[in-house]
Amino acid sequence: MQIAFAEAAKGESTWTNPKVCAVIVKDGQILAKGHHEKFGGPHAEINTLSHLKNISDAKGADMYVTLEPCSHFGKTPPCVQKLVEVGISRVFIGEVDPNPIVSGRGIKYLKDHGIEVTDMDCQSEINESYNFYYQKKRPLVTLKYAMTMDGKINQKNGQRSIITGQTAYQDAQKLRSENQAILIGEHTLKVDDPQLTVRIKKMDFPLIRVVVVDSADEISTDMKIFQDTSSEIYLLSKQAATKQFPDQVHVEVGDWTPKEIVKFLAEKNIESLLVEGGSHLQADFVAAKLLDKVVVYLAPKIFGGNALPAIATDSQAQAIALTEPELTQLGSDLKVELRKAE
Amino acid sequence: MQIAFAEAAKGESTWTNPKVCAVIVKDGQILAKGHHEKFGGPHAEINTLSHLKNISDAKGADMYVTLEPCSHFGKTPPCVQKLVEVGISRVFIGEVDPNPIVSGRGIKYLKDHGIEVTDMDCQSEINESYNFYYQKKRPLVTLKYAMTMDGKINQKNGQRSIITGQTAYQDAQKLRSENQAILIGEHTLKVDDPQLTVRIKKMDFPLIRVVVVDSADEISTDMKIFQDTSSEIYLLSKQAATKQFPDQVHVEVGDWTPKEIVKFLAEKNIESLLVEGGSHLQADFVAAKLLDKVVVYLAPKIFGGNALPAIATDSQAQAIALTEPELTQLGSDLKVELRKAE
């Protein structure tokens, strides 16, 4: 099962699907392994069967699969049918699928068709946001910011301050690539003029870009974010808007509190959200206690006066306890990863 | 010489004197070693000679001494005379003494009296602030603060916020014990009501306590700092004052900028100053670029709104580059030590 989990983690383009690997074992020998490679593509179980020399080898074999096999018609037919059809005799499952469309039904189908099923209850973290989404019915929220040793994220000169070095930048890009949506506030959009894309690799499923604004009509279509057409952009606008934006841009009017934003994204099946600033938007999420992880990149400098604190000091945000700080040195910067204490 | 430096570091009560160790070697054997144990007590060289079985063993022996032997009458007679007297034939010196009262004169005296002298130029860090003081003519300034993961040092409720845990507290006490003076601002005095002492061990030379205030007359004599009589207290007051304070308290009236504070302490032979807040005093030192080291204790929590940033945002403090972050995990807190970049 450890081999299977390690292999499952290779599925970098599964998007909102879980990462899964299956291994077929017979007489103590691994006959085949395969993982779910890409959202919309064949599931791990089917990939694995296709890697057998002869499909007849599956007869009487054991399958170790990191996640409960699916029992429904989605983009592909149910895996459980196939497992029964090829004559797998025992299935060892790493984790029960938290998705209610499957959860327990896959196991039941297999058992009903004479396959011996063992739930190994592995509690792995490879599908952290997938599991979180189905348990909590909302995306896992990560606050991310780069700050100085005095807790500042920008100098107040209306220009973007470069905080961290190249290694931290690469790491922050990787963090983006592991999320399905990215969110910033209007001030950050205007000061940084970012594309909000992942630069370090081609994404099969680029992350959805979300910006909270006061009035979408006040946002210039010349901004860099609109030049990139690789993924959808949601402008969450407080005021009604009439302005014409490029095709990939959707203006949604509402009272966009963190709770409403997260609800909106949950309805779009977004399992993970990266909140990338600024200071007030982060503060709103802290105030709403809507954060699950915090990733801070610390740079060896002091900004001192006339600078923006990481979390706005004039906000309603109350103190929040975090836990389990994990440290990584990235060049001369430090990365600290924390979780909200339960 | 490595043995000597390790031994020298044991001198915890040398106060403004350097830590020094001397080792006597003859025919490849260590005959004696000794270190300077306490300010006012015998120097390392004399201690070492006293550890010889017979003082006549010194004749023709080598001495390894971490710092140039002194050549002046201070609290004790000059060591160089004694070395000549007992017949040491070669002296290996770790570092030349930066104190102008000695610097080079010790070596000259030894050479003039027929002793072979080798300067090993070791650049050790055991006398960092001693060396700094004589090179820069001012104390080494360390800014120290405990902050949350959003760079806040206190909640704005007029009460002291507990930021870090017990392990970080112990470490911060140790940091105090390694400094000769400690400085805070008036707001910190009033909110925290600290004693500014070292609690974890009995100090032979407790650190001098300095508080910058607007008007000493406005400071209550009931504060805890005045109850502790173990060391001098300097109230650096902007306004003239008439109030009667306990004997250990000195009110000094002046325009107490960081530059003036540091000059005042330099005249008192203070080689190391720990600036312990608050937010505005730290900002003043950053603005004056009068800081050499920064020690930050990072706690796994977010304070959010209505909280004080580590360095006041409404100050004139400009950005300062730091370097070489050194990390220590202290319980669930992190310690980051940095230096001002040259």
UniProtKB/TrEMBL annotation, chains A, B:
A single GO BP: riboflavin biosynthetic process
Entries under Pfam families matching the protein: dCMP_cyt_deam_1 (PF00383), RibD_C (PF01872)
Enzyme Commission number(s): 3.5.4.26, 1.1.1.193
Keyword Ion transport: no
Active site: E45 (proton donor)
List of residues binding NADP(+): A146, T188, D192, R199, S215
UniProt keyword list: Hydrolase, Metal-binding, Multifunctional enzyme, NADP, Oxidoreductase, Riboflavin biosynthesis, Zinc
Pathway: Cofactor biosynthesis; riboflavin biosynthesis; 5-amino-6-(D-ribitylamino)uracil from GTP: step 3/4; Cofactor biosynthesis; riboflavin biosynthesis; 5-amino-6-(D-ribitylamino)uracil from GTP: step 2/4
Single GO term (MF): zinc ion binding
Catalytic reaction annotation: 2,5-diamino-6-hydroxy-4-(5-phosphoribosylamino)-pyrimidine + H2O + H(+) = 5-amino-6-(5-phospho-D-ribosylamino)uracil + NH4(+); 5-amino-6-(5-phospho-D-ribitylamino)uracil + NADP(+) = 5-amino-6-(5-phospho-D-ribosylamino)uracil + NADPH + H(+)
Domain CMP/dCMP-type deaminase, first and last residues per copy: 1-118
Cofactor binding: number and manner: Binds 1 zinc ion.
Known cofactor(s): Zn(2+)
Matches recorded under NCBIfam families: eubact_ribD
Name the UniProt record assigns to this protein: Riboflavin biosynthesis protein RibD
Provenance organism: Companilactobacillus versmoldensis DSM 14857 = KCTC 3814
Species classification: Bacteria, Bacillati, Bacillota, Bacilli, Lactobacillales
